[in-house]
Protein 1
Amino acid sequence: MFFATPAYAAEAAEHGAEHSQALFSIFGLQVSSVVTTMWGLMVLIILFSYLATKRMNKVPESRLQNFLEFVLESILELLTPIMGDEKLAKRYFPLLASFFILILASNYAGLLPGAGHLPGLQAPTSTLSVTAGFAVVVFFATHYYGLKTKGIKYFKHFVQPFPFLLPLNIIEEFVRPLSLSLRLYGNVFGEEMVVASLFALIPLFLPIPMMLLGILFGLVQAFVFTMLATLYISMATAEQH
């Protein structure tokens, strides 16, 4: 995580104001570049999933099915050690895998030519509202699964190991989604700003190394968010903390 200087903060505010402007409205609801990009990503993910599973076989015959199975199995292998059991990992797999795939696609959308500058095209995770939305889902899912698994006993962890830690434990629960959203937003937005600055200085060749690093950073940020969400759910549903 980086520390924002006044100049960076001003640039960030200007960037946010520029791209939060509505492209059009639907029934009075404003639609921005972030929304249109997110819609496009969801359509592509749904279309790819449909094509890959249209003719499923136990032994994959199509490259799309083979690739999709490889991706999903890789994600499951990452979740299993944190959950401690493959059965538990599979139980929460749909939500956690959706986080990883959608965040990864959103991060990589910022690497497309003109992203952040062309109307209708902006990396969704470069805005705090989107990353905060992901974090809020994690927040409610964690407590929902905790209550579903343990019932009223779930609230015991708020007074452990000592009852006087109740206020700190409550604050910790609210700090988690805040840190999740700010970490993802800060890194994606910061990478976009660096690439934009390099393009402004030298349009050719110089920004390419940063864009290649952006591929790695986008993967890492999707991985970190998903792993933290997995850890929070695992802690909420574990029999012992």
Note: Residues 1-19 have pLDDT under 50 and may be disordered.
Protein 2
Amino acid sequence: MGVLSVDKPNIQALGGNGPADDPTFLAEIAAWCSENNSQFDSYGHGSFIESFEAKVANLLGFGAARFMPSGVLAQLVALKIWCDQSSCNHFGMHPTSHLELHEEHAYAHLYQLRATLVGPQDSPLLAKHIRGREENLAALLVELPIRESGGQLPSWHELEELKAEAKHQGMRLHLDGARLWEAGPFYDRDYKDICRGFDSVYVSFYKGIGALPGAMLLGSEDFIDQSKLWQRRAGGTIQTLGPQVASAAMLLDKRLACMPDYWRRAKQLAVMFQDILNVRCVPSVPQVNMMHIYLPFSADSANAARDQVVEEQGIKLFGRAMVAGVKESYFELSVGDKLLGTTDQQVAELFERFMSIGNQKALAHG
């Protein structure tokens, strides 16, 4: 397994696709830039960044794209544009959307937008969840996959039905594609086909791709021209995004080629967790390369057990356990290069030790 600096040197992170260590990763980016004669952009202008934007726009089937420092900025810009065009400040999104749970309601405080939460928390957004609604929504934000439900996706038929219903109601469709790259193997279609019908799309480069932080917003040429204006207004046009762009360009093709292997490994591990460790995975058969693993003890016990495994083994099994009930918790596991190179037996031994410690700590606390 590759080494990842997490909280201190020499700690290995089991999941994800983070760099082996920061200095080495930066050196790899520098070497790649030298080999490819890459010239950093100046405030978003330059052949290097523009060629990468064109590449991703072609991959996803859009007329234009804009590299931005964060997905938070990209998605707020998209919703602001669509709401302004409709002269309606009201949009819809899933109740577990990142905009609702993790961004301090920036859409309301910064842009005076209003949101309606659509659909149940434990299901992907479906056509039936928006059908028959009386309020006028300028746009609908759709996340593929739904992270907070363990990476669940609608079926291809359900996705096409949702697109058609939103269009029938006159809504603009925006795709939160923070993990869109990971969804490709499930649909077994080109990314252009998945994105077809969406008016705008945001994708991330630091999650499944494992690059430095950075995002891209895609849409028509006119939409992207407007997005550049709002990016500047929001303070998101910085002197250069060259290192971020270079890391994404360096890793994109490599990691996209691995997505089917990550998904296949996630399904193998889900069987192991449920059959050998007798814990519950959501979904029981992963639809992407991630899942939520539910534990029969509290988040405090889980996090303490995780930390003890770090001290004993130098391996961090997951980031943070979260509360699921009075005596139940869960954590998120994403499969990347590290878990591709770890055997079932190695994973089982690590988690058997973790479960033993967690159960002991739970008994000690009553």
Note: Residues 146 and 152 are 5 Å apart (CA to CA).
Protein 3
Amino acid sequence: MRFLVALGLLLSLAGGVEVKIASYNVENLFDMEYEGNEYEEYIPNGDWGWTQDIYRAKLRNIAKVIRGINADIIGLQEIESERAVKDLKAELNRQGLYYRYHLFARNKKSTVSTALLSRYPIQNGWRHPINHNGQLRDILEAKLDINGESLRVFVNHWKSKSGPESRRIMSAKRLIYRLDELPKDEPFVLLGDFNSDYQENIVFLKSRKHNDTEGVTGINHILRTIDEDGKPITYTSLASPYLYNLWYDLPPEKRWSHQYKGKKEGLDNMIISPALIDGKGVEYVRGSFQRYEADFLFYKGKPYRWQHTKGYPKTHTGEGYSDHLPIYALFRM
């Protein structure tokens, strides 16, 4: 016991601070203010019964998941407004989890956007639009101060698979343009719902609906998570200009966060830069990447998504969580 205490003290004095970073698509957190761009089922006091009580239930359920993850920094997707972010922070506070800092990527033409909660100071934040008409969701960039060390986190929510790969490539190109502006030794984490499997370059080849780019994908080719021969970048092969997708830290049967019509995909991703394994400053803890898979998040083997009644008219029941599983990883000074 004395040895463990001494070791803990030594790590603390040596800067051995451990930081947990997570990502979670919360499946449509809408506030109670009507703005006119809400999905039909989330119009305040509308036919679907999106009432103040149901809104509070949604906040409690999301907060329960985030409290279970207990991340220091968490990127969120499908948030309607900054009001919803603040209400979520208040609910988290009631449940004993306090985040002092937050960012919200407000795009008035997008129904839902991304957000970031942090226990660490946010030095600066940017919102990166994808196109001029605002139909694609902005990318949120945050520069964080981790005990004197800088770390950038990019929160993504790319176009859903209702659209072809060319739409997701637009987001990937905007992101890589920004990354190429940074110094080569800049540590950064890309996270969020990319609506792309970690091996999208393989799984979408037979899909005429999605493959309108002659086999080129945003997450693999544009973000350079595969090499010139199409082989995935590994932890040991990671070097500039390539990036490493942390799904490869898990066995293949665990590499999924979303299930649709029986098909499991790793649509939620966490991707790191070479600077996070160079032995300097903030470092990725190898093998720490995981899904948060508490029992209550599953129903019959599938993510226990936010529930509606099955009859017509459908209404919110106040039960369930999200159609996505959260993911997280550890980083250490």
Note: The chain is about 20% helix and 25% strand.
